[in-house]
Specification:
Helices cover 38% and strands 26% of the residues. It is an alpha+beta fold and 188 residues long. It has one domain (33-187). The strands form two sheets. It has a four-stranded antiparallel β-sheet, with helices on one face. Strands 1-2-3 form a three-stranded antiparallel β-sheet, with no helix packed on it.
Length: 188
């Protein structure tokens, strides 16, 4: 009699254990969860970088605005030592933007592209590559920041439009154009 009770008790205990194990989610940290965490960190880094670069003291331009105003329309690529123009290898991009990219992004193995999107005279938008380091992966994050350019920010609007390709969309006011700076970042 005790043998039969022992067998029944063992069967019930095994059934309870099987049920408990199947009901509990025992999943390890999956790659998608890890990727989401890394993407979140990269997005925060990108937001912080653009916020710092777009900050300015009263009466001065931000580093980001100065970089746009000084841009000659060339596309730059990282050459393992510096950002060089794709069309003129002796043209090296320098300034606070490149210093921050080197210290924060490149040092941490994060690939990146920067594009400028702006309005044309016809009202459509145009995108030009500023820094290009390859096609982004599927896990890339995009951070953007809008920068307002006024006529008073530019010394000669005709030369700026000719060099950078960014037109004055409203010649009757101080409004020149608004630039959407798009920073795309991904792990290499």
């Amino acid at each position: 009699m005790h043998t039969l009770e022992a067998i029944m008790a063992t069967t019930i205990m095994i059934a309870v254990l099987v049920f408990a194990v199947q009901a509990t989610a025992l999943t390890p940290l999956t790659s998608s969860t890890a990727n989401a965490h890394i993407e979140s960190q990269i997005h925060t880094i990108g937001q912080d970088m653009l916020t710092v670069l777009d900050h300015s003291a009263y009466g001065t331009n931000s580093y980001l605005k100065d970089q746009i105003i000084d841009w000659n329309g060339d596309e730059y690529v990282w050459t393992a030592t510096s950002y060089r123009s794709r069309t003129n290898s002796s043209d090296i991009l320098t300034g606070p933007l490149t210093e921050m990219l080197e210290l924060v992004v490149i040092e941490n193995g994060i690939a990146h592209n920067i594009e400028f999107t702006f309005n044309t005279e016809t009202g459509s938008s145009q995108t030009m590559s500023f820094i290009y380091n390859g096609d982004p992966s599927d896990n890339a994050v995009i951070i953007s920041r809008k920068v307002l350019i006024s006529n008073t920010d530019i010394e000669d609007a005709v030369i700026f439009a000719s060099n950078a390709g960014i037109p004055d969309v409203d010649g009757s006011t101080d409004y020149y154009n608004i630039i959407d700076v798009k920073l795309t970042m991904w792990r290499m």
